[in-house]
Design brief:
This protein is elongated. The protein is mainly alpha-helical and 895 residues long. The chain has five domains: 179 residues, Rossmann fold, CATH 3.40.50; 57 residues, no CATH class; 279 residues, Alpha Horseshoe (Serine Threonine Protein Phosphatase 5, Tetratricopeptide repeat); 133 residues, Serine Threonine Protein Phosphatase 5, Tetratricopeptide repeat, CATH 1.25.40; 55 residues, Winged helix-like DNA-binding domain superfamily/Winged helix DNA-binding domain (Arc Repressor Mutant, subunit A, Orthogonal Bundle), CATH 1.10.10.10. Strand 6 and strand 7 form a beta hairpin. 59% of the residues lie in helices and 4% in strands. 47% of the residues are buried.
Length: 895
């Protein structure tokens, strides 16, 4: 149909725009989605709101799927839609001529008096008023889609469009598909609730949607692989489709999607053509330079470009959805794939520039206070003196040992070669070597750093902070070296030096790095503990355990709790030791640290506690877990704790010689630890006692210095075994425990006295002492002393009131009503280790006369597994046959 000119006369050229050019029908064609197009119902449902609001904006980056989404939604409508794909650099008259033609093509009848633009560069306001009036009279609104609306940059067209939209009332629904924010008063539409918006974040594919899309391309990926691809593409529609198409041609699609280099794909071609090459030379230069950054702000971008125009450029890029994401507070980041492609282009266009950009970024970030990014860019620039200096000056060397970034920092500085020589690099080398327990190399680097720093003068004023921070870092590493070598005096000197140096450090810096003080106190407490200075150790360790700082102090807090648990264990307080050891493990687990941190000694204490409770299976599991090679450093205290738990377990299993071998220390210390020596003597004494040499056993323990209570009790037991009860009682009477010893020590002493009384015929005293021992041991579930006591105690445990005190935790509890009872002449069953749940299952099936094969089939396990459980059941019940195991199980109330 021929249009009318703006004065109501017929246009000179029917079917043509104001310039006389024929209308291009492709601009009115609704795109057809490809066969692999995925309809996403959540977006379709949202787009349905376009029928209820005058304005809808679908705003997203190139390739986000905007056009296909609206085209698919349009095709599903039961009414026609006027579709117009806009073009750049068109005059107002041409724009409105095409829009009027789109309405007519879609079947929207317009009165002839509306007219037609006669001038390509302008349109009469009266025509717009007539169009708005005509649309406002419609019973059903005309749906108009303007695709690629970002090409419309003329503010006059935007004003005219808003005029028609506003005055059309309910007669028009306008849908803008655009890469940029349209030049319309969107705030008014939002405030009135008259606008539907679908933006880039909503257009991104979810993991489930991406999996369906990939499957439509013939790719079925595991969830982790699909998740990685979605993260890398940020759910970008075209990126996912192009990656899927390329992967489909690969013999190993999953590996391709995991390892593909973005710069060598069609994704790169798309982004370069659709995004980078559309930008001005200045913008392209900025994008290439900031590609070396994970995130950036205008000031940082200016530092890399050495210009001052980043504010406007970055704002425009974000507004245009040019794959520059706004993080808030004036910080931005590039889309991951776009960043990869830009970095590859940077290397091709400007070889050698990348390290210099990293160096500029590191310098700017150091001044701005972002240490983590400073270190990353300093390392990328290969400037290790700068990078190590930044770490030391910030007082952050403790982060090489503790915190969420511990492994990342260790990995970063692992690339630092020996050619880097400065006090700071020596300190970092020393920290890395000492954390790996390489004392020789660590101390060599530490000495080099100390010698270099000794020649530097302490300047006055704030400039002294750097030197003081380096010297304080030296003190921390000195304390660590003292801990590794078991040298308490060296640790005390390091702690005193640290206290003096902290006065020269700004309080703000100390508050930002609580891990440094926590580590210092942990190392100091460990060396005091090794030397047997329990009170001083407890004071330092309690300070470290109470440190604030969250994840940054998790390791020293966990280690300190583990050391405090060991002190409680050595003093005989099993329950206290267990609670502190569990707290040590919880501290590491709470912050999901990269490696299990601070809980190694805690595990060993728990294992030792389990041995004293005769829970041997649990003890073995804990020892196995503590053997993890990724756990913290092997210092003398930890190795002594390992020796205590291991030798105790082996002794409980009857492997006396193996227990003795386990007492040999793997770490050589500068100072002999009295309690470690005492433990070795106790194990050796027990071996001699088991092999019938009580005199030798007693001599070994009496030679232990400092009169350690546990050794005195052991010596008294040996004297009693040698037939010298008077000497045994004299040893016990000479003890002055000062009320600080727990049941693990006092119960053993009471049982020695009880046995001596029993052998002397003083049965009342013996019973009284056994009752006292049961009262003390019951709360701690302390079983080993009663097992070690020997056969003489078993009849006593069957007497009143011992029977009630021992029932349930030391001896079997009351039998169920009507259940079988052991013969009256049979002595009470010996103390046993508790059966596991699976071992109980096996025992129950033994009682049902099931064969090994039948048990295996019933429990869905292998025959070998059943045999392993049977051996454990026989050992724990002290029997050798099935029949006896069933009888013993009934006696113990297990069946």
């Amino acid at each position: 149909m021929a249009g009318l000119a703006e004065n109501g006369q017929e246009a000179a050229t029917p079917g043509a725009d104001p310039r006389g050019d024929p209308f291009l029908r492709t601009r009115f064609a609704i795109p057809t989605p490809p066969a692999t197009f995925l309809r996403r119902e959540r977006l379709v449902s949202h787009l349905d709101q376009a029928l209820l609001t005058p304005l809808t904006v679908v705003n997203g980056a190139a390739g986000a799927g905007k056009t296909l989404l609206v085209a698919d939604w349009t095709a599903a409508r039961d009414t026609s839609v006027a579709w117009l794909t806009t073009e750049a650099d068109q005059g107002c008259g041409t724009f409105w001529a095409y829009l009027l033609q789109a309405l007519r093509v879609s079947g929207v009848p317009l009165p002839a008096e509306v007219g037609f633009p006669a001038d390509a560069s302008r349109v009469d306001h009266a025509l717009l008023a007539r169009l708005a009036a005509a649309l406002s009279d419609r019973d059903r609104p005309a749906i108009v889609v303007l695709d690629a609306y970002d090409r419309v940059t003329d503010p006059e067209i935007a004003e005219q469009l808003e005029f028609v939209l506003h005055h059309s009332g309910r007669g028009m629904r306008l849908i803008l598909v655009t890469r940029t924010e349209p030049l319309l008063p969107l705030h008014r539409y939002r405030a009135a609730g008259d606008m539907t918006e679908i933006r880039d974040a909503e257009l991104a594919f979810t993991l489930d949607e991406a999996a369906v899309l990939l499957e439509s391309h013939g790719l079925r990926l595991p969830v982790p692989a699909a998740s990685t691809l979605v993260e890398r593409t940020r759910g970008w529609a075209v990126g996912l489709r192009l990656c899927a198409l390329a992967a489909r041609e690969s013999p190993d699609p999953e590996r391709y999607l995991k390892e593909f280099e973005a710069e060598d794909t069609t994704v790169a071609d798309f982004l370069l053509a659709e995004v980078l090459e559309r930008q001005s030379p200045e913008t392209q230069d900025l994008l290439l330079r900031v590609s070396v950054l994970e995130r950036f702000c205008p000031e940082l971008a200016n530092a890399l470009t050495e210009r001052t125009d980043a504010v406007s450029i970055l704002a425009a890029l974000h507004r245009e959805n040019a794959f520059v994401e706004h993080l808030g507070h004036a910080w931005y980041r590039l889309h991951p794939l776009f960043g990869e492609i830009l970095r590859a282009h940077l290397r091709a266009r400007s070889p050698g520039l990348e390290p210099e950009l990293h160096r500029r970024a590191a310098v700017w970030l150091r001044d701005s206070g972002s240490l983590a990014e400073t270190l990353g860019h300093g390392a990328a620039a290969g400037d290790w003196e700068f990078t190590a200096g930044a770490l030391v000056d910030d007082l952050a060397i403790g982060q090489l040992f503790t915190g969420l970034r511990r492994d990342d920092l260790v990995e970063l500085f692992s690339r630092m070669g020996p050619e880097a020589t400065s006090p700071a690099t020596d300190l970092v080398h020393a920290a890395r070597e000492l954390s790996g327990c390489d004392l020789d190399r660590g101390l060599t680097h530490l000495q080099h750093a100390q010698q270099s720093l000794a020649g530097q003068q302490m300047p006055a004023g704030d400039s002294s902070t750097g030197l003081a921070a380096a010297q304080l870092s030296c003190a921390l590493l000195e304390a660590l070296a003292a801990r590794l070598t078991g040298s308490p005096d060296r640790a005390e000197m390091a702690a005193e030096a640290a206290e003096r140096l902290q006065e020269r450090i700004p309080a703000r810096l100390l508050e930002e790095h609580p891990e440094l003080t926590a580590l210092l106190m942990t190392h100091l407490g460990s060396t005091r503990l090794w030397a047997g200075r329990f009170d001083g150790a407890r004071a330092a360790l309690t300070t470290a355990a109470g440190s604030s700082g969250g994840a940054s102090t998790a390791l020293p807090r966990g280690e300190s709790l583990g050391h405090l648990a060991l002190i409680d264990y050595l003093n005989g307080w099993l329950g206290r030791a267990e609670r502190k050891a569990l707290a040590a493990m919880h501290t590491a687990e709470r912050f999901s640290l990269p490696r299990a941190s601070g809980s190694g000694l805690g595990l060993l204490v728990l294992a030792a506690v389990a041995v004293d409770r005769n829970e041997l299976g649990e003890a073995q599991n804990l020892l196995d877990e503590a053997a993890d090679p990724h756990r913290e450093m092997r210092d003398p205290v930890t190795e002594a704790g390992r020796s205590i738990a291991t030798s105790g377990l082996l002794s409980a299993k009857g492997h006396t010689q193996a227990a003795l071998a386990a007492t040999e220390q793997a770490v050589t210390a500068d100072v002999v630890s009295p309690w470690a020596v005492g433990h070795t003597a106790l194990v050796a004494s027990a071996v001699h006692l088991a092999e019938g040499r009580p005199d030798t056993a007693a001599e070994l323990l009496q030679a232990v210095p400092d009169g350690q209570v546990a050794c005195v009790v052991g010596a008294a037991r040996a004297q009693l075994a040698a037939g010298r009860p008077a000497e045994a009682i004299d040893l016990l009477d000479g003890l002055r425990p000062e009320g600080r010893l727990g049941p693990a020590v006092t119960v053993r002493a009471s049982l020695v006295r009880a046995r001596a009384a029993d052998e002397a015929g003083d049965f009342a005293a013996s019973r009284r002492l056994v009752v006292q021992a049961l009262h003390e041991a019951r709360r701690e579930r302390l079983r080993r002393p009663f097992i070690e006591a020997g056969p003489w105690i078993r009849p006593l445990l069957g007497l009143v009131p011992m029977r009630g005190l021992a029932a349930g935790w030391l001896t079997p509890g009351p039998k169920p009503h009507g259940g079988p009872h052991p013969p009256k002449d049979r002595p009470p069953a010996p103390v046993v280790e508790e059966l596991t749940g699976r071992e109980r299952d096996v025992l129950q099936r033994l009682a049902q006369m099931m064969s090994t094969d039948e048990i295996a089939a019933d429990l869905y396990v292998s025959v070998n597994t059943v045999k392993t459980h049977l051996k454990s059941v026989y050992r724990k019940l002290a029997v050798n046959r099935r029949h006896d195991a069933v009888l013993r199980g009934r006696e113990l109330g297990l069946l």
